[in-house]
Amino acid sequence: MRAAAGAWIASSVRARFPRLGAALGPQFDAMLATYFEREPDVRTSVRESGARLVGFLSASPDYPTWYAELAALDRAHLDVLHEQPATALLRRSDVTMDRTLKLTPAHALVEVASASDELWAALDSRPVSEPSWNRAPRELDVPQLVLVWSSDGSTVRRRTAAPDEAGPLRAARRETTLRELATLFSDAASPHARAVDVVLDWIDADLLAA
Prior knowledge:
By secondary structure, the chain is α+β, with helices and mostly antiparallel strands. It contains nine helices and five strands; from the N terminus they run αααααββαββαααβ. Helix 2 crosses helix 6 (116-124), helix 4 runs antiparallel to helix 5 (65-82) and helix 8 (178-184) crosses helix 9 (191-204).
């Protein structure tokens, strides 16, 4: 009975991390066995087993960084689908210098040090049943921030933030204003104009809650 429950949890974890599973192929099962061995508590709960996998991969020297990044992207897409979207979205006409700007609740920010987002997208277009690629994504010169969000609770969107957009996105996660954002674009030729352009892009992408 216990073995059957363990197998069911393992199957559920695989379902929650489809692109990681596609990338690793048969190695996924070996990694999962090690995970359960080192983190025995996670074998009692599907929720816990999925919640802790990214941290396990990040902390373990046995696995490359991109394993954890693919897992984080998989989890971000699942979390966003389960998050309640904003009841109303900000419109262009709503924006003032001191209007509160905040990201829709259905969002996730994932920092990556490799081109794991490109690999995730490529795997997304291939059947999960195909053999693993056995090809690690290239390392990035500078870490990037991947934004994952949904405005309707059914469609998940994803893109890589511009280099100067990462800080402002984190500010908008906790709530910010156009006035504050302008100070975060101090390297731009016109910080205010750049802040306005970014906020309008966010609005057009249905990213800001009213």
